[in-house]
Amino acid sequence: MSSSTTHTDNANGANGPVNGGISFWYADDGLPTAREPLTSDATADVCIVGGGYTGLWTAYYLKKAAPFLRITVLEQKFCGYGASGRNGGWLYNGVAGRDRYAKLHGHEAAVRLQQAMNDTVDEVVRTAAAESIEADIHQGGVLEVAYTPAQLARLKAFHETELSYGEKDRTLHGARETAERVRVAGAVGSTWTPHGARLHPVKLVKGLARTVEALGVTIHESTPVTEIRPKHAVTPYGTVRAPYVLRCTEGFTASLKGQRRTWLPMNSSMIATEPLTPAQWESIGWEGRETLGDMAHAYMYAQRTADDRIALGGRGVPYRYGSKTDNDGRTQPATIEALHTVLTRFFPQLTGVRVTHAWSGVLGVPRDWCATVTLDRATGLGWAGGYVGSGVATANLAARTLRDLVQQDSGQAGPTDLTTLPWANHKVRKWEPEPFRWLGVHGMYATYHAADHRERTTHTTTSSRLARWADVLTGRH
Ligand SMILES: Cc1cc2nc3c(=O)[nH]c(=O)nc-3n(C[C@H](O)[C@H](O)[C@H](O)COP(=O)(O)OP(=O)(O)OC[C@H]3O[C@@H](n4cnc5c(N)ncnc54)[C@H](O)[C@@H]3O)c2cc1C
Fold first, then answer.
1. Which residues are in the FAD dependent oxidoreductase domain (predicted)?
2. DSSP label at 68?
């Protein structure tokens, strides 16, 4: 890493990246003005805890379906404080747990889930346009590249699997065709799907908050919920009573009373470069602005931003002991350095390019790595999440499903295509107590990094068996 990118301890140093401060997206678009907190006890028809994509899309679709509903959103900081204001801006059709759902409910059920995800990408693009939410959306699809023989073998297998779930429009490319899209150093192949778009995460989440407020939804910010009980959301400033209380707190869920081992808060970290010059872009290509990923075990994800930077993410410190979550996105220097190494491995000509921003966030990982959306009809408690890093589109599908589950439960509608998807009302056991959680996750990522290193240096064509064992041990596959 060049010395110009290492001054991370001096958060806003002249040359070093801005470290934390929530995310680059906020540096770019500005932090929001805080909305009023809750000041006393209140009632609502539906109380939503958490103002990220899941909570806000749920408020949106419920209010659109039943404008008379009194909906209150309670947000601990400000809408978009969590992963929804920090992510890589991959709006894409991946959903965590699909293969397991195929095993549990049959292949056809999983094909329906996949089809719903494909449609969800279009739904987000369409609704953002309909609501005049300008979120730098560019529907260039998703390109995933392989740059070792073992990655190529995984890529081909992945491609075949996706085809088997009905993705007939996915295409496989060799080295030359890959380079015609994006010139990733050493890339030997890629797979591309049209079911993806790049977006500006903060512009989307701010636009959603504005939209639901204009529809008549009440949003209280700076209002942490300490406990959720049937028909009650408890905060230090008062309790909101509602027949339906929906938990939309994803990676932060562990901080709620009784939820410490429900979903593990996994870290993901990102860097953004300064805007690249036209000559640098000429050398890279990437005119299609596809979201870009790889087939490493500890994979990377990237986008070409609307202002012509590269924003690139991956796993740094994967998990903090005791399910700790946040310090406004501050990121360890070693993680920034590791992401910079990935950047220059992909594009060696960018070695001297400045990294201007670095940040991190948490996402929710259930014990079986399967995203879920649930409404418990006995208590009126609902939740959605556990998206394992694929939540930008999935949150929208979850929200429409929560809408349908609430409408079904309150007698306003019957079962729908969404309420019968295999991830609805899925149950999973909790994570182990510490130190087993910490050991399991750190062991898994240490194994992934070792496997990636081995595959890069030995040019083996077979995927590391160790990485597969790590997946089995941690319940991932
Ligand atoms: C760095 C990073 C990169 C990612 N990149 C991608 C990507 O490119 N594509 C993709 O599909 N997914 C990505 N993800 C995952 C995706 O961003 C999330 O799955 C998605 O944003 C989850 O939305 P959410 O609303 O469920 O959760 P969040 O956005 O985390 O929202 C939860 C909200 O609840 C609030 N909250 C928490 N606890 C409480 C409480 N007790 N009381 C009140 N409020 C509370 C939080 O402040 C937060 O605003 C990424 C995640 C991270 C961290």
1. 45-405
2. T
- Residue 408 contacts by C-beta under 8 Å, 6 or more apart in sequence? 414, 415, 416, 419
If you measure from the C-alpha of residue 381 to the centroid of ligand 1, how many angstroms do you get, rounded to a whole number?
A: 20
Q: What is the largest CA-CA distance in the chain?
A: 63
Q: How far is the CA of 25 from the centre of ligand 1 (A)?
A: 14
Per-residue model confidence as pLDDT tens digits over 252-285: 999 999 998 899 999 999 999 999 999 999 999 9
* Ligand 1, atom nearest to 23 Cα: 1
pLDDT of residue 473: 66
Question: Which atom belonging to ligand 1 lies closest to the Cα atom of 301?
Answer: 8
Short-list 181, 200, 215, CA closest to 136: 200
**Residue 279 CB: number of other CB atoms within 10 A?**
8
| Confidence at 351, pLDDT banded by 50, 70, 90 | very high
CB 399 within 8 A of CB 217: no
- Among residues 136, 144, 287, 126, the alpha carbon closest in space to that of 198 is found at 136
Kindly tell me the sign of the dihedral angle through the C-alpha atoms of 370, 376, 381, 382: positive
* Cα dist from 234 to 245, 377, 397, whole Å: 11, 20, 27
SS3 of residue 407 by DSSP: helix
Sign of the Cα torsion 52, 54, 58, 60 reads positive
User: Parallel, antiparallel, or unpaired: how do β-strands 238-241 and 232-235 relate?
Assistant: antiparallel
Contact 32, 79 (CB under 8 A): yes
Going along the chain from its start, the domains and CATH numbers come out as 3-20+139-196+265-363 (3.30.9.10), 27-91+93-123+201-263+368-409 (3.50.50.60)
Residue % of the chain over a pLDDT of 90: 82
* Cα–Cα dist 298/315, whole Å: 7
What is the per-residue pLDDT across 449-477, written as a single tens digit (0 to 9) for each? Answer: 888 888 888 888 887 777 777 777 677 77
Q: Which atom of ligand 1 is nearest to the CA of 89?
A: 8
Q: Say whether 282 sits in a helix, a strand or coil.
A: helix
Tokens 């087939």 belong to which residue? 295
- Å from CA of 208 to ligand 1 middle: 14
pLDDT tens, residue by residue, 199-245:
999 999 999 999 999 999 999 999 999 999 999 999 999 999 999 99
- Burial, 68: exposed, middle or buried (Cβ in 10 Å; 0-12, 13-18, 19+)? exposed
Ligand 1 centroid, distance to 270 Cα (angstroms): 14
Cβ-proximal residues to 279 (8 Å cutoff; 6+ apart), any chain: none
The whole-number pLDDT of residue 14 equals 55
Atom of ligand 1 nearest to the CA of 54: 25
